[in-house]
Amino acid sequence: MPIIRDFQRSDAPEVNALALRAFEQFRNAYDDWPAFQAKIANMSSLAGGGEIVVAEVEGQIVGAVAYIGPDAPKAEFFQPEWPIMRMLVVSPASRGLGIGRVLAEECLRRAKRDGASVFALHTSELMPVALPMYQRMGFKWVSNAPAIHGVEYGVYLKELDDQPCTQADGL
Fold first, then answer.
1. Are 33 and 149 in contact (CB under 8 A)?
2. SS3 state at 143
3. Tens of pLDDT, residues 41-86
4. Strand, coil or helix: what is 16?
5. Under 8 Å CB-to-CB from 109, ≥6 apart: which residues?
6. Which of 64, 77, 97, 139 is 20 to 30 Å from 133 at the Cα level?
7. Going edge to edge, which strands form the sheet with 140-148?
8. Could you give the angle at which helices 12-23 and 33-40 cross, rounded to 10 degrees?
9. Burial of 96 (0-12, 13-18, 19+ CB in 10 A)
10. Which residues pair with 88 in a beta bridge?
11. Whole-angstrom Cα distance, residue 27 to residue 66?
12. Secondary structure letter of residue 2 according to DSSP
C-alpha cells in the first residue's frame, strides 16, 4: 500500500512529470495537445488553491490529486460550496493497484472533515478506468461540463454519508 501524504513544494517537479505521464495516453484525443499539456505540466500550481495529496511507494510519487475545499475558488460549473477533486493522476506503471481509489477516498475524507454533505468532480468518458471507478464509488452524473480542448466532460456528484472516513496511512 502506498503512503498517502500532503504535497511538499519539493514534490513539484515529480508531480508535474507524473501528470504528463498519466495523460500521455490521451494526447491524440485533445485537439490542442500542446495547450493542454502545458496546463497539466503545472499540476503543482493547484496547491495554491487547495491541497495536493500524493501517494508514495518506496520514495517515488506514483499518484497525486488536488483537493479543493468548500467555498474555495473553482470552475463556475461547480457550486461554490462543493468540495471537489482535480487531476487525479496515477503513474501508468502503478495502475491497477488501487492507488487512484485511495487518493479519491482521501479527498472524500477531507470533504467530511470540512463538513461537506456532497462532493464533486469532473471527468470524461475518455477515461476508461477513472469514470467506472468513480461510478462504483457512488458518483452520479449531474450535468455536462465545458469541453476541454475538444474532449467532452461531465460533472459527477456524490452524497456523503454521516460515517466518518478513516485517515489514510501516512498523514
1. yes
2. strand
3. 999 999 999 999 999 999 999 999 999 999 999 999 999 999 999 9
4. helix
5. 165, 166, 167, 168
6. 77
7. 3-6, 51-57, 60-68, 84-90, 118-123, 151-159, 140-148
8. 150
9. exposed
10. none
11. 21
12. P
**Reported pTM:** 0.92
pLDDT in tens, the chain (171 residues): 899 999 999 999 999 999 999 999 999 999 999 999 999 999 999 999 999 999 999 999 999 999 999 999 999 999 999 999 999 999 999 999 999 999 999 999 999 999 999 999 999 999 989 999 999 999 999 999 999 999 999 999 999 975 545 444 333
- The residue behind cell 496515477 is 90
